[in-house]
Design a protein that fits this description.
The structure holds 2 protein chains of 2 kinds.
Chain A (H helix, E strand, L loop, with lengths): L14 E2 L23 H5 L2 E2 L1 H6 L4 E3 L2 E5 L2 H12 L7 E5 L6 H9 L25 H7 L4 H13 L11 H15 L5 E3 L1 E8 L4 E6 L10 E5 L1 E4 L6 E2 L2 H10 L5 E3 L5 H9 L2 E6 L3 H17 L3 E7 L7 E4 L2 E3 L1 E2 L2 E2 L13 H7 L3 H11 L8 H13 L2 E5 L1 E7 L5 E7 L2 E7 L1 E4 L3 E2 L6 H9 L27 E4 L15 H18 L7 H12 L6
Parallel strand pairs in A: 2-7, 3-9, 4-5, 4-10, 5-6, 10-25, 12-23, 13-14, 13-23, 14-19
Antiparallel strand pairs in A: 1-11, 7-8, 8-9, 11-24, 15-16, 17-18, 20-21, 21-22
Helix pairs in contact in A: 3-15, 5-6, 10-13
Chain B lengths: L4 H23 L9 H30 L9 H6 L1 H14 L10 H19 L19
Classes of the chains: A alpha/beta, B mainly alpha.
Amino acid sequence: MTVPRGAGPGAGRETIHLPGAFVDPAQDAARPPGAGDLTADLLEYPVWTDAVVAAAGIPVVDVALVTLGGGIGSLALVDILRIAGVSRDKLRVLSALDKPWDTYKYLTIVSQIPDGERLRSDSSGCPDNIWGFPAYALREAFGERRPTRFLAPLWQVLTEPILTDYYTPKAGQVFGALQGEADRIGWWSLVDKGQVRMVRKRHGGGYFTILTPPAGTAATKRVAYRSSYVHVAVGYPGLRFLADLQEYRQRHKDYTRVVNAYEPHEHVYEELQRQPGTVIVRGGGIVASRILQRLIDDRDTKGSKTTIVHLLRTYVGGSHGPSRFMRRRGGDGWAYQGFNWPKATWGGQLKYRLEKLEGDQRKALFEVMGGTNTPRRKLWQQQLARGRREGWYKVQVGTVTEVLPGPGRAVTTKVKTAEGTLELAANFIVDATGLEADIREHRLLADLLEFGGAGTNPLGRLDVERTFEVRGTRSEPGRLYASGSATLGGYYAGVDSFLGLQYAALAICDDLARTGFCDRIGVARSISQWWAWVLNRKLP
Amino acid sequence: MTPTYLGRIQTRFFLLAVVGGLWTLAITPLLPGGGALGDRYQATFTALAVVFVVGIGWEALYHFLQQFRWEKDWPILFGLLEGVPEGIVAWLVLRSGVVAGDPAVDGAAFAIHFGTTWLVTWLFVIGPMRVPFLRWRFRGGRLI
């Protein structure tokens, strides 16, 4: 898979654009009016009439609902709508991706989760199965032949997280399952390839969505989709570097010594296998855990003689939290949590609590429950304990003031610590902080904020209702919904997770049922459709 | 599972009334102890009712303990192990004579009935429950 790199040196900022989110500015070069391109009028008007679109020469495709993005968020919605009985002719998926899991797979691979490694996701968070049953642990067990391997996932899911770590599925299992469900619901016939440029309200109700198909595949540069309903699931706008590392890379044009965990950086591990070296890993989250595991696995299996300096801004020494009833486990620098939010935010008492909060109160609860954290996995505990004992892994706490080229082929990091300023030399620095870019860096989201009436929530992302309708964008009788990472900070915490995408899809499906677009999935339909899933019966 | 208190009560009611009820209908004639079938059904269904009523208190205790868990979850292993104290207390209640009708209770019959019902309802709630009730897992176990 080729991955577009960020804006590059001199662009003022550096964002790792992900597959599907990337827009080539050259594609937007000027064209004569009437040639099927955006006109000045279209760019300027927040509400479009059919006549203005026609005057621009942009062909119009009529469809009831479009989902934009075409990733796992879109798949989750299309899956549930198809199960609710919505026919194919009412749905289109506008996507730059070949497969819904392309972006996700890219992120897992670069952050050191190949197909055989395990994700950080609950057994019953199954984006290929709206019921979460049979969950991944059960399916994994029945995919095994040896009795011990049959029992292992079942034992783990039975005793998690008391006697064992939380069960989590292997990446490859999820991708395979997604492929199966996409085939079953007829996903591939619904996809129109291209870059989504904007969504604007339509005079008279509903929306226009402008798609830029790949050059040479359409008669005009743009195609407009006229729909009552729009679903925006475009994923991360991009991932950012830490400011000091970004400055170093731009000033010294060094893109090999200082890398982000979310960009391809295999050369780091390869060089460390050839010669001993020091790596600084920055960040205290799951991605840092994975990078550390890879470095230590390479020490153990490939003979690397790597020294690891784990640089943290804050050191978590033990349990922490505002009260006896809200204390999270921690230690050795890390805050420990099974998943990226406490489990009950997906469907328990914390979900109900969050749903009632607005503004600063909601933000405050997000801060308590979130922050940087990682699961407490036995393997990682053992590896790091061994590293500390043998002296090749140490934690350094402090704030980075500057990153400079060092002697030889090293990079020097100046760190302000409680004991004064330190200079750390390293062969490589891996930024595993996983900062996400501002949603305005995504052109479609920026346009929605500027022209569509959308606003931001207490965390600065897209403000959505409890139904995942984007507040302020209603174009009666149409509705515009959003799900996924862009909506973090709303009434539901786990939006950026498999189960969260499924929850959003269910909430949207129920809301659409209230408008009369589809039937609400009741007990009988749920059971009959589950049976169809079990039999892998293709949906009509 | 990540139940709320109301979700716990509703789920318990559904499990005992429907899943446990069907299981009890099927298994009662096979239980040891003898006696008229009507009396045996009275004994087993009374046991189910006792487990539900006493369970309202048990759930309050579990829910209190859950507050000490950061994740506010209730691991499925707990759900299985709860059966041990609950079975003992239900047995003591049935033996105490406080239950109306004072059904004749056979020890072995109770152990088999309670043990298998607990296992069947637990197996149902950790997976198949989500098939008819799509929204149940997002609502803290609430059905209505």
